[in-house]
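User: quick one - fold this with adenosine-5'-diphosphate bound?
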Amino acid sequence: MAIMRVSNLKKSYGNLEVLKNVTFEIEKNDVVAIIGPSGSGKSTMLRSLVYLEQINGGSIQVGTEYLVQDGTYATSQEIKRMTSKMGMVFQHFNLFPHLTVKENLELAPKIVKGEGEAEIRKRSEELLAKVGLSDKAGAYPAKLSGGQKQRVAIARALMMKPEILLFDEPTSALDPELTGEVLQVIKQLAEEHMTMIVVTHEMGFAREVANRVMFMDNGEFIESGEPESFFTNPKTERAKAFLQRV
Ligand code: ADP
Ligand code: MG
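Assistant: Sure. Structure tokens for the protein plus adenosine-5'-diphosphate:
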């Protein structure tokens, strides 16, 4: 069953057409790697899915509901409900610097309410253990390495029990020796069948962990397929040229 359907998405900044005609579906348990050159529209696409950007045309369906249908958005209440099913992890972590690790995790669930403090605390402890950072619960983000910050960001996204997790180049801001610990956490989530979309430049990771690769160039998906066949035998010239460069 598709848990997300995107069709004919269009987005421009002034005269610059950033998303031309983006169409794809995400099935439950999919781990989709999105690759493509810098400036091709990957971040804009991802941000549009969680309503951090507004699109100019097309549709985004979350489950059976439309976030936006033929360019017309749902009500703000409906949008809130749909975007709460999605968690986002950014390249630059976006942790709250004035809050401890534990407070970063617990803030959103406390604001949303409907859940007791004990329940929230229990989940934050479990998730910090899951990403190997139980000993950092009381630390402030400035005291953490980039890899640790990103693992906190992943745990924070999981606090909201998302149905789908979106990653925008989660390791691009990290020193090379710190990427492994973050990719390992994402790989573990894949093994637990978390549904994920991962924009990444880590081709080895995409090949190993994703069940589908989608190649974006110039505001469109040009080619998609199973990682093995995509990486060994890309069909389009543009994908071939891109893979030769990276
Ligand atoms: P990618 O993530 O693939 O590198 P982006 O989605 O960040 O690509 O950017 C796609 C294009 O949109 C780029 O040409 C970029 O300069 C432009 N762009 C992105 N955000 C904005 C913005 N807020 N205002 C104007 N242009 C933007
Ligand atoms: Mg980007």
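One thing worth noting: The mean pLDDT is 96.
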